Automatic annotation (TrEMBL):
Known pathway: Carbohydrate degradation; glycolysis; D-glyceraldehyde 3-phosphate and glycerone phosphate from D-glucose: step 3/4
EC category name: transferase
Enzymatic reactions: beta-D-fructose 6-phosphate + ATP = beta-D-fructose 1,6-bisphosphate + ADP + H(+)
Localization terms from the record: Cytoplasm
Family affiliation: Belongs to the phosphofructokinase type A (PFKA) family. ATP-dependent PFK group I subfamily. Prokaryotic clade 'B1' sub-subfamily.
EC number(s) per entry: 2.7.1.11
Function in brief: Catalyzes the phosphorylation of D-fructose 6-phosphate to fructose 1,6-bisphosphate by ATP, the first committing step of glycolysis.
Keyword match Glycoprotein: no
Listed name of the protein: ATP-dependent 6-phosphofructokinase
Keyword terms: Allosteric enzyme, ATP-binding, Cytoplasm, Glycolysis, Kinase, Magnesium, Metal-binding, Nucleotide-binding, Transferase
SUPFAM superfamilies referenced in this protein's UniProt entry, alphabetically: Phosphofructokinase
Cofactors required: Mg(2+)
Gene label: pfkA
Annotated source species: Gilvirhabdus luticola
Taxonomy of the source species: Bacteria, Pseudomonadati, Bacteroidota, Flavobacteriia, Flavobacteriales
PANTHER family: ATP-DEPENDENT 6-PHOSPHOFRUCTOKINASE, PHOSPHOFRUCTOKINASE
Length: 328
């Protein structure tokens, strides 16, 4: 029999993303709904080891569903990677009578949660919060949709100046290992070419595509480049390459950077966060542990943390084909 759950802790860890506040709100209100106490833990695993906790009731999370970032702050902690660090964290949870932990974060945070669960048999549940959408077991992570909307808005604005001046723009978006942001935002923003880490298009293909686009009468072009594209050149090197090898292009570069992480969460992310928070708390109440809550076929589903961490989130091949057709 699993032990009776009376108090749940919630923390945000690793890279922040929009929708984390909406998820905290949902965890807190679901606890209140079921008559459980809830504590917020500041600064991820750092605050957990220090016992930096705050009691949260349904009213203390008012007015945050529309806020980017995380009211609990996020942090990275080297100490939590040690057994001593995790022992400290366990002692603080026991001291405060916390019976279960909801971790909102990415695969690093989930690795920490999984090891912690294995060592102390402490109930943990993960909520995927990262803009990269690189977690197995969910079609969407919190913050991905908001980041896409931000990127598409930026592409639209850059296109105005690109077409006014007949320019070629390389726009770098986040996604070191995965091209989800680049592919989706590229299709939505009508990019002429999209360079993602999963595909090696090669510089020749890029050249050919730009020439084709010019021939077809386009006066400006937008190329979306994921941080980790396989051509192996960073965005400034791409500009240099075109400057040196292709005449007649006025090339500009725009790196969108951290603006992609922040901002008021989209409707989609707010709804997703609300659903995930409910599922996380109710799953702990049902005695489930060491899972991540995810969205699959529009249903809330649980995936073992180990699979969520080790599994690969694959690029959508159908969308890749759509992108190829659209950039013809
Ligand atoms: P994200 O959760 O966004 O992937 P990180 O990879 O930085 O972010 O991980 C966040 C935190 O999770 C780390 O600072 C560390 O405290 C914890 N963590 C990551 N890997 C491990 C591990 N192998 N063992 C214990 N804790 C870990």
């Amino acid at each position: 029999m699993s032990k009776i759950i009376k108090k749940i802790g919630v923390l945000t860890s690793g890279g922040d993303s929009s929708g984390m506040n909406a998820a905290i709100r949902s965890v807190v209100r679901t606890c209140a709904f079921h008559g459980l106490e809830c504590v917020g833990i500041y600064r991820g695993y750092e605050g957990l080891m220090e016992g930096d906790f705050i009691n949260l009731d349904a009213r203390s999370v008012k007015g945050i569903i529309n806020k980017g970032g995380t009211i609990l702050k996020s942090a990275r902690s080297e100490e939590f990677k040690t057994k001593e660090g995790r022992q400290k964290a366990y002692d603080k949870l026991i001291e405060s009578n916390v019976d279960g932990l909801v971790v909102i974060g990415g695969d690093g945070s989930f690795t920490g949660a999984m090891i912690f669960n294995q060592e102390f048999d402490f109930p943990v549940m993960g909520i995927p919060g990262t803009i990269d959408n690189d977690i197995f077991g969910t079609t969407h992570t919190l913050g991905f949709d908001t980041a896409l909307n931000t990127v598409v808005e930026a592409i639209d604005k850059i296109r105005d100046t690109a077409s006014s001046h007949n320019r070629l723009f390389f726009i770098e978006v986040m996604g070191r290992d995965v091209g989800h942001i680049a592919l989706n935002a590229g299709v939505a923003g009508g990019a002429e070419e999209i360079l993602i880490p999963e595909e090696d298009l090669g510089l020749e293909r890029l050249e050919e595509s730009l020439r084709r686009s010019r021939k077809s009468g386009k006066s400006s072009s937008i190329v979306i480049v994921a941080e980790g594209d396989k051509i192996g050149k960073n965005i400034f090197e791409l500009k240099e390459y075109v400057d040196e090898n292709m005449s007649g292009y006025d090339v500009r570069v725009s790196v969108l950077g951290h603006m992609q992480r922040g901002g008021s969460p989209s409707c989609f992310d707010r709804v997703l966060a609300s659903r995930m928070g409910v599922k996380a708390v109710e799953s702990i109440l049902e005695g489930k542990t060491n899972f991540m809550v995810g969205l699959l076929n529009n249903k809330m589903e649980l995936t073992p943390l180990e699979n969520a961490i080790k599994g690969k989130s694959k690029i959508n091949l159908e969308l890749l084909r759509v992108s190829d057709i659209m950039t013809t």
